[in-house]
Amino acid sequence: MFRSPKPIAHNFPCGAIARNVINPPKRLLIPDTSPYASPIVRRSFARATRVPLTERQHVLRRRFRSLAYFAIFGSLGYGIGNALSAFLADPAAPGSLEDTQRVDHLRRVMDRLEVVKQLRADPDYVEWEAYDSFSEEEKPHRLTSGPLSGSRNLPVQRIFWNEKKHKATTVVHMGIGLSSWPSIVHGGAVATVLDESFGRVAIRSFPARTGVTANLNIDYIRPLKVMGFYIVTVECDLEKSTERKAFVKGEIRDSKGRLCATGNAIFVVPKTVTLRPLDTALLDMTSGTNFVYQITRRVDF
What we know:
- By secondary structure, this protein is an alpha+beta fold.
- It is built from eight helices and seven strands, in the order H-H-H-H-H-H-E-E-E-H-E-E-E-E-H.
- It has a domain of about 200 residues: Hotdog Thioesterase (Thiol Ester Dehydrase, Chain A, Roll).
- About 35% of the residues lie in helices and about 20% in strands.
- It holds the Pfam family 4HBT.
- Keywords: Membrane, Transmembrane, Transmembrane helix.
């Protein structure tokens, strides 16, 4: 007489939603491409279809891939081969004909640097090569003109001095003999170049025309690559400096202008010894070890 009541889920739309959540309808694995299908489905299916390549397109792709591989691996092999040949080659003895030819070539390359052209065009700068004023007997006893000389080490040190600004710009070449890690200049070589450049400026501020390194601070910012030219710029703080103490600061940049290292130093004139006036040649004397060498030869204790 009475019909059984229908479940509540059949009377409300939420029941259908619940059934769909519990038992989701099965999806067709093959898209419906009939004219009555949704246009979105038909467009997606059409984009998924790949048009076969022609024989000419296959040939062009293979040629392009071969050229790309040749360019990549050829450039890589050329660079590695040059680096290995330079690293494994027997070093030319400093002063030999082969070494002299290499140094002359590096000087010609340096002459074409833009920074060198600008410095030479400025009448306020005076130019000379480091240690040119020293005799051949004196050069072997100095660090950079002796053990570090030659085309594989420090073959070029061109100095540009500005007396008005009390500033020096030195163009140096770092050879492969200065490397520690492959292709990277040793940090000690960088410190040596900075120390000499600092001292070269500091000594010119002393009436005594001599001095030693009292303090040296260096911040290494970017690794220096061997077989490259670098520009060392140093200036003296004349306001802080006195007749016996000089404050100098400077930096090293590569030929592209990227900052590689910065530093500052304090140079002093010793009070414990009486120094003779140093001649013009000794104005290139900079580091502490060089100073000791000059004392033993030219100073009366």
